[in-house]
Amino acid sequence: MNAKSRLNGKRFVVGISGGIAAYKSVELVRMLRREGAEVQVLLTPDAHRFVTPLTLGTLSEREVLTEIFPANENGSWTKHVHLGLWADLMIVAPATANTLSKLVSGVCDSMLTAVALSARCPMLVCPAMDHDMYEHPSTQDNLETLRSRGTTVMDAPEGLLASGLTGKGRLPEPVDIVSTAAVILAYSTPRSSGPQVLVTAGPTRESLDPVRYITNRSSGTMGFELARAAQRLGYQVTLVAGPTALETPEGVARVDVETAREMHRVVMDNRNADVIIMAAAVADYEAGEVAGDKIKKGDGDLTLTLRRTPDILRELGTLRREDQVLIGFALETRDAEKGALNKLHGKNVDWIVLNNPTEAGAGFGPGTNKVTLFGRDGSVEPLPTMSKADVALAILGVALPDISREA
Ligand code: CTP
C-alpha cells in the first residue's frame, strides 16, 4: 500500500513552532494535501516570524489557528477540544526546544499546545534546533519523556544547520515525515471496547411501485459525522443508514436499510445500546399499498393513500432503560422551539437537537449546520454554526459528558 492510499481522507493537525525549519513544513502541508489528506495548521506565535498564515491557509484550505482565544471570538473557544478529537494524527514539525518542553510539562499557551493536550490521536514530533540545544540533557530528557508516553519522535538528522555549524538538529525531510505518518496511521487501531452507540442516518425510501418511491432531502451527513465522532471518542458504534452514497466511517459497523419499517426492525433489534441517536429523517408515511406493477397514468389526477410508519423514537422512549441516553432530532421551520420541546417530552428522550434548515448555515447536505440542543433537565444549548463534523463532536460533548469521559 503506498502512502497516498493510506493518507487519503485522513485528518492531520500540523503544529508548526518558531524555528527556521518551519519553511519545510510548508512543503509538508502541501505533500499531505496532495495525498488527499485534510490538514489543519496551527502556528505558534513565534512561527509567524518564519512562515505566513496566508501561505499555509492557502495550501491547507483551512484557516490557520494560533491563539486559544482569538480576537474575533465567536463563541467557539472549545475548538482545541474538537481538533484534538477530529485529527487522526497530530504532527508537530518543527518542534523547537521551547515547544518540546511545553509538550512535556503540559503548558497550554497557544492553540498548538492546547490541541496537543486534548488530542486523543497519536502524535508525531519532529524536533529541529541547533545542535547544542538538541544535545542538551534537557532536550534529550524531554524527547525521552515524550517517547515514554507513546509519542513517536523522529530523530533530527545531522547536517548543516542555520547557525552555520554542522551537527544534529535538522528537521527530517517532509517526505520522510509523511512516510512515518503513514506507518503510524497504519498501525493505530480504532478503540472498540467503550459503551455501545446506535446512530441512525439518512433518509428512508418508501416504495409506491417497482420504480417509484417517496423520500426526502436528507443526505445522511449529520448522522455519519455523529457515528464517526462517537467512534473516535471510543464508543462501539453501529450505524443504521438509509439510502446514501456516503462512505462508512472507519471502525463503525454499518447496517443499510431502505424503508422506515426496516429501520424500525434493525433499531429494535439493537435497542439495548447505551446511547441511541436518531439522526435519520424517517418517513412518517409509507404507501398504503405498494403496487406490484408500475402504476399507469390515467387521464385524471391520482390520489395516493399513505399510512403512518412506526415512530421509532417514540417507541424507544416508551421502552427505554433509565440509564440509557436517547437523542432525537427535530426539523422545524416554524415555532421551532415549541416543536422541539413537544418532541423532547412527547417522545420521552434526553435530548432533542433542533435543526432549522431555513436558517443561514444550517440544512441538508455537506457543509455546516447550526443546531440547538434541548435537554430533559430544561437546559438549552445553542451551538454556533460549524462544520457538521464539529457539530457532531459538540453534540456528543453536551449530551454525553459523563459517558465521554468513561470512554
Ligand atoms: N423519527 C422516528 N420515527 C419516525 C419519524 C421520526 O424515530 N417514524 C425520529 C427522527 O429520527 C427524529 C425525530 O423522530 O429523531 C423527529 O421527530 P418527528 O416527530 O418525525 O419530527 P419531524 O420529522 O420534524 O416531523 P413532524 O414535525 O411532522 O412531527
Task: Outline the structure in words.
The protein is of the alpha/beta class. It folds into two domains: 3-186, Rossmann fold (3-Layer(aba) Sandwich); 196-399, CoaB-like (Rossmann fold, 3-Layer(aba) Sandwich), CATH 3.40.50. It is 35% helix and 21% strand. Strands 12-11-8-13-16-17-19-20 form an eight-stranded mixed sheet, sandwiched between helices. Helix 2 (22-34) packs parallel to helix 3 (53-60), helix 4 (79-86) packs across helix 14 (388-399) and helix 10 (221-232) packs across helix 14 (388-399). The chain is elongated and about 90 Å long. The model has no long low-confidence stretch (mean pLDDT 90). Cytidine-5'-triphosphate (CTP) is lined by residues 260, 278, 280, 282, 284, 309, 311-313, 328-331, 339, 343. Cytidine-5'-triphosphate is lined by residues 260, 278, 280, 282, 284, 309, 311-313, 328-331, 339, 343.
Please write out the topology.
Layout: H1 3-7, E1 11-16, H2 22-34, E2 38-43, H3 53-60, H4 79-86, E3 89-95, H5 97-105, H6 111-118, E4 123-127, H7 131-135, H8 137-148, E5 152-153, E6 158-160, E7 166-168, H9 174-187, E8 196-201, E9 206-207, E10 213-214, H10 221-232, E11 236-241, E12 253-256, H11 260-269, E13 275-278, E14 285-287, E15 306-308, H12 312-319, E16 325-331, H13 336-346, E17 351-355, E18 368-369, E19 371-375, E20 380-382, E21 386-387, H14 388-399, H15 401-406
Parallel strand pairs: 1-2, 1-3, 3-4, 4-5, 8-11, 8-13, 11-12, 13-16, 16-17
Antiparallel strand pairs: 6-7, 9-10, 14-15, 17-19, 18-21, 19-20
Helix pairs in contact: 2-3, 2-9, 4-6, 4-14, 5-8, 10-14
The structure holds cytidine-5'-triphosphate (CTP).
